[in-house]
């Protein structure tokens, strides 16, 4: 099993989505004019639509023959869908509905590290580990999770991954009834995976965290993404009744009080990607889940100050995104991939994005 993956080559987020009852006109998918601050960056492709899948989260994996797979979770069909990242062609689907190893129940988050694929399953209440390219199940962990959605991981030290999973359990059958504040201290769950010399991952639970103050509690959580260079974890709170925001935590689980504040998004903040241009500079790209066009908001990697926004000509209602900064045959300066309306994937050339927003040229080296 390949474990090493260059940190600057591919920083991937798997973001997930809950069902969507209307909370405001923006959240309900009402047609809104393209915000004046959003420039248009045409998609390089939009894949063929498959309405049955209900695609959610994305991750990329470079194959041994030089290609790149784009792996998507399909919540409605309980499987993973594999696309060719350069063309958008669907290559295969993996898995089926069930509780056994290699099966899924409403898979949501997906994350790739080396040849290790992590998939969070909301209705199986676990994170399943699989090896690539064969998608062989290596077991699962987190069986005490109640409603896992997004996940992100990083190599804390050689042979050890730290894994963060959002646990968006709700109070009773109503998925929008947030539990009492005192229960929200477990919104993010932490795990450690030790990679044995034989390649077998060995997971352990190491705690949970989440702020519980009325103004900053994590109420409805899905997407999260970390930046080890700045000891930062951004967690999206999608509860529009209290103001959507990206809350900032340290990797140890301490709430800093910072982040991207309420009022920065018109709808729910969904997929989050880190574009690491150098060891400590770059940008965050966050999907503002709007119709008729998703707005991708760009923030400075270090200060979190806004650095512009863009949308495509088609892409809407985005859940997950995946940023692949390493060059590919079609995208020599890297690509941003995004889910389009639950039924397709879209690709943006990072060179197009950088030029449209006048971003740091170091990102394109």
TrEMBL record:
InterPro entries: 6-blade_b-propeller_TolB-like, B-propeller_Phytase, TRIM-NHL_E3_ligases. Keywords: Signal. Residues 1-17 form the signal peptide. It comes from the Bacteria. Residues 27-357 form the BPP domain. This is Phytase.
């Amino acid at each position: 099993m390949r474990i090493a993956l260059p940190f600057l080559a591919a920083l991937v987020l798997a973001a997930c989505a809950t069902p969507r009852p209307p909370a405001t006109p923006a959240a309900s998918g009402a047609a809104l004019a393209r915000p004046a601050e959003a420039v248009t960056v045409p998609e390089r492709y939009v894949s063929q639509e498959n309405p049955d899948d209900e695609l959610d989260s994305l991750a990329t994996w470079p194959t041994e023959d030089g290609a790149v797979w784009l792996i998507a979770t399909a919540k409605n069909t309980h499987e993973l869908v594999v696309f060719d990242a350069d063309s958008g062609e669907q290559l295969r689907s993996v898995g089926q509905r069930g509780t056994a190893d290699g099966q899924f129940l409403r898979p949501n988050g997906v994350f790739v590290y080396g040849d290790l694929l992590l998939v969070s399953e909301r209705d199986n209440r676990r994170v399943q580990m699989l090896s690539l390219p064969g998608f062989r199940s290596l077991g699962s962990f987190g069986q005490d999770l109640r409603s896992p959605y997004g996940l992100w991981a990083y190599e804390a030290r050689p042979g050890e991954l730290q894994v963060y999973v959002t646990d968006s359990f709700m109070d009773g059958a109503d998925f929008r009834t947030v539990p009492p504040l005192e229960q929200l201290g477990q919104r993010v769950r932490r795990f450690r995976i030790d990679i044995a010399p034989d390649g077998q991952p060995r997971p352990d639970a190491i705690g949970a965290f989440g702020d519980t103050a009325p103004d900053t509690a994590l109420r409805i959580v899905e997407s999260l993404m970390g930046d080890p260079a700045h000891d930062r974890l951004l967690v999206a709170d999608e509860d529009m009744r209290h103001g959507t925001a990206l809350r900032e935590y340290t990797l140890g689980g301490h709430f800093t009080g910072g982040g991207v504040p309420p009022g920065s998004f018109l709808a729910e903040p969904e997929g989050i990607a880190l574009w690491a241009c150098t060891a400590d500079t770059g940008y965050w790209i966050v999907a503002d889940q709007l119709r008729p066009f998703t707005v991708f908001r760009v923030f400075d990697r270090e200060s979190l100050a806004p650095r512009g926004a863009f949308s495509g000509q088609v892409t809407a209602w985005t859940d997950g995104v995946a940023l692949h900064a390493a060059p590919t045959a079609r995208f020599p300066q890297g690509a941003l991939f995004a889910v389009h309306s639950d039924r397709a994937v879209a690709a943006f050339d990072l060179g197009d994005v950088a030029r449209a927003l006048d971003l740091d040229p170091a990102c394109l080296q």
